[in-house]
């Protein structure tokens, strides 16, 4: 006689919330049962609900640019998770013409700069904030008046194409953007810009602006600037008599200097 034993595990309904480093709910976090293709995503508040097949099941929490966590259910019905951001330059996501890629997988010449680096520069225009920030980008400011813009050239090839949130733009529209409104700027320097056609022959400046996020506290930032572009006090030029008198005095002083120099050399 043969005896067959069956061990049945009851399914466990697990719920919880995924938080970021600031304690705010994270939407669209992937919650996956390890070793399977079964998974869910967190809602706008960071909440999730998933059914684990047994107490030994492992939940995998993953989100772009955050450290992946694996947690064993172990009979728990509520599991709250706090994800931490990854600090890895090679895993940094760079916006390119055909989407977003990790820096480690990019073969073209692409440079990027984030919003915090732009805000550290005391510049009144976005182009001015890029001065000295990115390799291979030359900057020229032909107008020193307050509010004057700075011309950008990628590898001395001329004015590049500006693409703001996927929309081709010009330098004027680029400089009208507030530095605090920009999430990141990517510079395409070589053939990676070919996707934009002939207009991108001098390179591409890709701009990604900031977007609203759910469950974020309301903040108001005010940035202002003013300057004067005209003289408030005009210099008073010399009249004809003063000019001739000053010229004669300068000639006399020059003659005295020449005589003193010759006497010194003859000694």
Please specify the SSE layout and strand pairing.
Blueprint: E1 12-19, E2 30-33, E3 39-41, E4 47-52, E5 58-62, E6 69-72, E7 81-82, E8 93-96, E9 99-102, E10 110-114, H1 115-119, H2 126-129, E11 137-140, E12 151-154, E13 161-164, E14 167-169, H3 171-175, E15 182-188, E16 204-209, H4 240-266
Parallel strand pairs: 1-7, 13-16
Antiparallel strand pairs: 1-4, 2-3, 2-5, 5-6, 8-9, 10-15, 11-12, 13-14, 15-16
Feature tags:
Immunoglobulin-like; disordered N terminus; elongated; 267 residues; TonB-dependent receptor plug domain-containing protein; transmembrane; alpha+beta; 4-stranded antiparallel β-sheet; single chain; 5-stranded mixed β-sheet; membrane; 15% helix; Ferric Hydroxamate Uptake Protein, Chain A, domain 1
What does this structure look like?
The protein has 267 residues and is an alpha+beta fold. It has two domains: 71 residues, Immunoglobulin-like (Sandwich), CATH 2.60.40.1120; 121 residues, Ferric Hydroxamate Uptake Protein, Chain A, domain 1 (Beta Complex). InterPro entries: CarboxyPept-like_regulatory, Plug_dom, Plug_dom_sf, TonB-dep_OMP_SusC/RagA_CS, TonB-dep_rcpt-like.
């Amino acid at each position: 006689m043969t005896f067959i034993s069956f061990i049945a595990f009851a399914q466990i309904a697990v719920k919880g919330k995924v938080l970021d480093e600031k304690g705010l709910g994270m939407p669209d976090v992937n919650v996956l049962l390890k070793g399977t293709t079964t998974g869910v995503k967190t809602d706008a508040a960071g909440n999730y609900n998933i059914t684990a097949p047994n107490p030994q099941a492992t939940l995998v929490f993953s989100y772009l640019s955050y450290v992946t966590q694996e947690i064993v259910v172990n009979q728990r019905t509520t599991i709250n998770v706090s994800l931490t951001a990854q600090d890895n330059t090679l895993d940094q996501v760079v916006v390119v013409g055909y989407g977003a890629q990790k820096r480690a997988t990019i073969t073209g010449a692409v440079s990027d700069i984030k919003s915090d680096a732009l805000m550290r520069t005391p510049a009144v225009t976005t182009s001015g904030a890029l001065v000295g920030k990115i390799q291979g980008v030359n900057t020229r400011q032909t107008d020193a008046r307050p509010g004057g813009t700075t011309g950008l050239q990628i590898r001395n090839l001329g004015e590049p194409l500006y693409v703001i949130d996927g929309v081709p733009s010009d330098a004027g529209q680029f400089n009208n953007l507030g530095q605090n409104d920009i999430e990141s700027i990517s510079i395409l320097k070589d053939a990676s810009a070919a996707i934009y056609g002939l207009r991108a022959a001098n390179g591409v400046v890709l701009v990604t602006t900031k977007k609203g996020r759910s469950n974020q506290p309301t903040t108001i930032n005010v940035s202002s600037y003013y300057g004067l572009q005209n003289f408030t006090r005009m210099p008073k030029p010399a009249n004809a008599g003063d000019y001739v008198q000053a010229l004669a005095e300068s000639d006399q002083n020059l003659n005295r200097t020449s005589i003193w120099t010759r006497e010194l050399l003859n000694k």
